[in-house]
Structure formats: structure tokens, C-alpha cells
Input
Amino acid sequence: MKKDLTCISCPIGCAMTAEFQPDGSVAVTGNQCSRGAQYARDELVDPRRVVTATCRTGSSAHPRLPVRSREPCPKDLIPAILKGIYEMKVSLPVRQGDVLGTFNGVQIVATRSFEK
Amino acid sequence: MKEVHVDAAVIGGGAAGMAAALEIRKRGADVCIIERDDELGGILLQCIHNGFGLHEYREDLTGPEYAELAIRNVVESGATVFTHTTVGEISANGAARDLACYSAEHGVMRVSARAIVLAMGCRERNRGNLRIPGSRPAGVYTAGLAQRLINIEGYIPGKEIVIIGSGDIGLIMARRLQWLGCRVHAVVEIMPYPSGLTRNIVQCLNDFSIPLFLSHVVSRIHGNERVEGLDVTPISNGAPDPARQFHIPCDTVLLSVGLIPENELSKTAGISISPETNGPVVDATMMTSVDGIFATGNVLHVHDLVDNVSEESHLTGGFVADYVSGRRPASQIRIKAGSNVRYVNPSRVDPGRANRLYLRPLVVKNKAELSIRADGRQLRRLVLNHVQPSEMISVTLRERDMADVPPDSVLEISLS
Output
């Protein structure tokens, strides 16, 4: 399996290709440094993204609470995680950093504090 | 009428205003922040995505998280904060620096300060600025407005989206809308290169297979009551090529076509504005053409990273504290943009210390050479791995770089 990608490790943005080899290792071409090679490998084998969204509060003063996944999560789990976030209702008050729920092993935390 | 007397008054309680006020407090002067919204934080509060603080805190924070850090610091420092308060006019007559304000809590209010910091940020370019043909259907928003509607108010602006402009706000909103179940059909960019960060092109467009049409313009928006679609025309040899025009059906158009520093208030004080930046012309201490009035953050020039806004504003706060204590630079040397540089801020440097310079390139280039010269003699040379117009460059001109430079020289900063 092969993947063409643009590196985001630094502003150069090298155009790279990452490909699985017969022995299971990953060959990376087009990178100019080792950070790029690692990024390419990760993108092919285990791509992850930080998920950010908002969820309901039931409050009219602050109808939406911004949330994030605490860590980058596997890309293919994102639709399920978003569904979980959109089904949540978090009553105020809430503090930044409060864990609001866990979906597919991914913790979702509040990124803002609201009094009421 | 309520009267407030303070060493420094900061107009705007976003990232820039908070960083400047914090530094002014740390240096022992008293300061008030005047914020028109009902809370501090500015635009950061609606930027719920991550990517903030990578340089300033070495952490990957969301906008609200970055804001809460700054808010906690500035409130704990003892700065006075007026929210729900708008500055209507700045009067700079003689030594007086007065702000005529309107406050929900206090009514009409006058703030008298020895120094004023402009930190009002910027606003978005809109359809009127671009003059896109078509009637006026509902469903045309600037990307920042759509961001506020979604993230703060809880509305989804439409289902089938086209985004005009590849600026970061539009790219971020492309991802946000896809993650809400909407479909972003295309991003249309007039230039031959994207104007947003590569990181955003990858994570907001490529991740969702959203096509990016470079060197294309939207030539018409269709629909009477509501947007029904738009026409996209490629640019060939600098001109639109109508023969290759195509149509995209959609119900919502987002505009991400640039930010304009908000200097209506600055103009009431008679401050000189630079046509290159649309922000005030400032000297080595970030002071405008009016004595005692300083400018920092997006109101001075549009930034890409809030980390740079904070850094620039901390420095400005220090210069304001100096000014209030009666300290001014002994001399200043002019600096201007040379080849391949659109502009440099500030317009003067203080040869008695290190100076932080912020500039924007006109070109996309790898291994670009940045050179600072005085009347042709090279003072400082750096090789930069990669430059592009959408990424602001910051560089330090050290005291030793300026040794033996005559005070009436004009420095030039250029790229090759």
C-alpha cells in the first residue's frame, strides 16, 4: 500500500511518498529530514488527529461548550467520536479540563470554563 | 460621568491587549483594558480548533484554552477590566490622551491615560469588497461569521458549501463543516498558491478530499432568495477564461478572502496609516505617529500565529511602561522593505538594543536569503528554510549588527 502526502512537520511541506515493503517495513521518499520520515510512517500506519467540536449545554447564555479530544485519536474513529460528542449534553457550571466522556477509549475534555 | 485615570489604557481585550496589559502590570504601571464584548478573550473564544501556543508554550492548545491562560494571568496581575464598554473616540490634545467610552454598566465614561495601546484586532473582507456579481441571496457569509454562528451561537449555516479564498479561517471552517455533516464542494483561490498554512491544507482539505482550485475566481453567485450555486472561472495568463467556466450547485458560500486591521478609531486620533499593512506606521517602540499612542497585534498588521501576537504585544507593553516612566530611545534609524519583502514592522529600530522585526515575503522560496543592509553594507544575513507570503517572518536585529551605522542611514531588509 502506498500513500502520497505533504509533510506538516515544518513549513517546507515536502511532498513525500510512504510505501509498505514486502518485509512489513515502511519506505519513505521525498523527505528532507527524519521528522518527515516519522510523520510519513505514522500517516500510513496509524494516522491520528486531535478532534475539536462543540456540544450542547442546555444554557441560553452559553448554548455551546467547546471540547477536544485530550490526545490525537485514530482517524477512522473520528465519526463515532463526533457522534458521541453531539449526543452529549453538559450542564453548567463546567471547568476547562473537565473530562466529559470517553468514546472508543478517547477522552473528551472541556476547553472552556463556564459559570452558569 | 464616570472618570478613570490610569497610566495606560489598552483598547481591546483579545490576545494582543491582554499580553500588552500583562507586561505593563509586570513593570509596575497601572493599566485598564477596555473590551466591547462581555468577556475578555477576543477572537480566540470562537477558534475552538487546536494549533495555538506551539511556540509560546510548546503545547498544542485550542483557542479557548490559550485565552483562559492569558485571561487568568492578566486578571491576577491586577489590571482593571471594563467589559461591555466601547471606545467611541480618542482625543489626543497636547499631553491629554482621553478615551470617550460607552459602558453598559457605567453609561458614558471618560478614561484619561498617559499612554494608549491600540489592540482592536481586525475585521473580515466581505463580498462587497470583492464585488462578486449576482443578486443578494441569503447564504453568503464571511468564514469568521460562520465560525461564530456555529461555535458560539449553535447554528449550522447551510448544507452544501463552497468556500472562496484559501485563507486559514476558510480552511478551518471547511473541516468544521465536514465534521458537522455538511459537504464542502470546493475551495476557490485566485492566486496560484494557497494563502493558508500547509498544515491546514493537509488537515482541512486533503483529509476530506475537498478540491482546491488555484488560479480560479468565482464569477457569479446564483439564486434569488437563497444561494443556488456559483460559477467558477479559471485564470489563464492573468485573465479570466470564460470558455472554461464551470458551475457548482450549492446553498452556502463562505468568504475567506483576507482580514483588514480595524483602524476607524485610530483615524479619529489622526494616526498615520500605512497602505501596505492597513495598520498604523510605528517606530522602534511600536509607537504611532501620535505621541503616547502605541499599536500591537492584528490592528498593526495581520498575523498568522497568535504566538507572534503575544510576543509582539509583550514587547509593546514593555515599551509602554518605559514611556510612562519617561524613558525613550536616544535615537532611531529608519528601516524599510527591500526586494521580495512586502513590508516590515516597525519602521524604525533602536540601535541601543536588540530589535524584533516582523515582515512578510512576496515570494514562495526554499533556502531564501534574508539580508539587512545599511546603505548597501550588509549588517545581518540569515538563510531561511522556507518562506511564503502566508507565513510572517520574525527576525532579531542585534545591537552589534548596528554598530557604526550612521543615524541618518536607511536600513533595508530584503529576500533573495
